[in-house]
Amino acid sequence: MYSFYSFLLIFSSIYSIVCFYRIFTNCGELGYKAIIPIYSTYIQFKLFYSKKNFFIYIVFYILGTILNLYLYFYSIVNFNNPSAYSDIYNLLMITFLVNLICGLYKIFLSIWMARSFNENLIYGFLLCIPYIRLFFLSKIAYKNTFYNGNKYIEYKEISKKSTF
To answer: Where are the domains of the chain?
Structure first.
């Protein structure tokens, strides 16, 4: 049973890289950038969202990883200590909020990616669901859609012009 899940995980990872390779080449970037882990996320933020939001995302991602590791080891050390349960609970809430912020950034990135290829808002939300994401990524990668530029940047420019 575990071998099936391992196969599914490996297959979905490789297929996501192949889809992002196609998406990057459709956007005018070099396809090999999809293989490099953090750099591919940077390219996604550059193409579909904004560079500034990538750096905010990466800070929260690193902070969430550190908090997860600290929470794991702290809960192991203080397993039989009832006075530490409130500390573990507080740390768990902070970790949850930091990881929630990272998740929201990925949702916004998926929405703006869908809008850059003239897809609707629901399509962006569906890009966030694991394993269903593969279907919608392949639809963007292999469908004859054209990259229409960064819609987030265009939206920001329009909103700046419309203010009084």
So the answer is: 2-153
